[in-house]
Amino acid sequence: MLKVLLVDDEPFILQGLKLLVDWEKEGFRVAGTAANGMEALAFLKKEKVDLVIADIKMPQMTGLELLEHIRKEKISDAYFVILSGYAEFSFAQQAMQNDCTDYLLKPVDSEILCKVLNKVLALHNREELDHEKNRKLEQAYLARNMIALIQGKFDDLNARYIHEHMRCGIGVRYVEIQMEEVCDEEGTTDREMRTLQRRLYEYSREYLKEDADLCVFDVSVNEKIYDIGLILFDYVPEKNGMDVKRYLERFREYLASNLQTNVVMLAGKKVQDINSIAKSYGNTCMLRSFQGFRTKKDIYFYEEEVQVSPEGLILCKQSLDGLLKAIEQNNHLEIREAVAYFYEEMCKRGICGETMTLNINYLLFQLIHLACEQDDDVNQEEILRVISESSFATGVKRGSKAHLTRFACEYADYLSQLRKNVSRGILGMVEKEIRENYASNITLKSLSEKYYVNSAYLGQLFRKKYGQSFKDYLNNYRMEQAADALLRTDKKIVQIAEDVGYHDLDYFTNRFIQIKGCTPARFRKKDATGRVRE
């Protein structure tokens, strides 16, 4: 509803204007009235309105003088309509020079006034759309420069733009925000994950309010990481009367409550200023990799989980190097013995807490290094995280001897696959499986077991070649077969759904609409030109 100020020195005209049209029906509300330009000026300095309708001839300050004054002094950018009993063009010309929207003659006709109001409303809507478009472009450009700094690939232009267009401060850390329970490659498509990620982003901006631009969408650009990045300056929790931990706890609770799913935050180490934020971002990447060996938490802080002081801490380097050698050679028997020896040594030395964390971190860092030597084109940190999670079994303590043994054996198999360069022929076989068995319940996990390939690695290889996840590729292939059957056969839609692997007709229909843009029934009616057959 746009707000209007009516200005005229004759009370009966003001009253008549208020009753002349149904203002609310036209999308307006009369916010106030004034008897002359001076009163109107005082009103505009206190309250913002969208439209001023003023008489041209008034005591103390005329309508034209009012218009000229508010434009020169930039008091209001409201649309301005002049009312006058004079039809001289010179008045209209003078008004238009000061950005007057329209010029009406007295007595005002209700139909003409409605047309002017419609014009003002159309101008307002157009300006709002342009403003929103420009805001989104500016927001996207700011995010682009922020991602450059976050990933450490920036120059002076990127840094200058950030410092000029957002409030920076001393003391900042990178925080990754992710959804914990929906990252299921088999059951959730990229489109569904993207929708959830978008909601996570909108709720994050909503919580941050005036600091919303500190939130960045999809920093990692990784197939299994639908993340939101947060540039958290110290001044943000401080102005809310909280420390960093309490602020992030409140933030996380707000997101989890609105999304109805668990949200996890990974907080990197604090750095001096935003130009060094890439270091803090690197911390969160390591935290993500090590999650599988940590007790489940809602918020992980790098200082607590990884960065520990080496003073007085013991590194069981010899036994860990023996375990690394057994993993590299993919000798499961020696792996079990090496893990047992490692835990026996820690027990004898009374190692626990931070010292145990230091030892596990050393092992994980070395494993990532070994994998990167074989193939640095895929996200090895993410694969390490997935393997550590998949090797964790119910009833087994995270980071325990049983967990580490399972993990080490599975990771040894993975390293062996890398050395053999299994990607050469495996994708062709997977593609053939889809062509021949698309109607069956085939999954990435079942194919990885069939061809003895780690499922996380296979998922990344598949996406790298086809530009989409295995699940989306399979769905798209099924829909192409369904589309072909719709056009070439007279089978019922429910039967076609069954034939391509969908036993729920509603689910099939929704998927079909997502990919083809219309229902199966409407698609069947289309002819070769794309027009619907009558």
Notable traits:
534 residues, alpha/beta, five-stranded parallel β-sheet, five-stranded mixed β-sheet, 24 helices
Entry summary:
58% of the residues lie in helices and 10% in strands.
Layout of helices and strands, plus pairs?
Blueprint: E1 2-7, H1 11-20, H2 23-26, E2 28-34, H3 37-46, E3 51-55, H4 63-72, E4 79-84, H5 89-97, E5 102-105, H6 110-150, H7 156-165, E6 172-179, H8 190-208, E7 215-217, E8 228-233, H9 235-239, H10 244-259, E9 263-267, H11 277-290, E10 299-301, H12 302-305, H13 317-328, H14 332-349, H15 353-374, H16 380-390, H17 401-419, H18 423-437, H19 444-450, H20 455-466, H21 470-488, H22 493-499, H23 505-516, H24 520-525
Parallel strand pairs: 1-2, 1-3, 3-4, 4-5, 9-10
Antiparallel strand pairs: 6-8, 6-9, 7-8
**What does the largest sheet look like?**
5 strands, parallel
Order of neighbouring strands in the sheet with most strands: 2-1-3-4-5
The count of helical stretches stands at 24
Rg over alpha carbons:
33 Å
Strand content: 5-15%
Distance between the termini: 44 Å
- The total beta strand count reads 10
> What is the global morphology?
elongated
Mean pLDDT level: 85
Give the helix/strand class: alpha/beta
Name the poorly predicted regions: none
- Indicate the percent of residues in helices: 55-70%
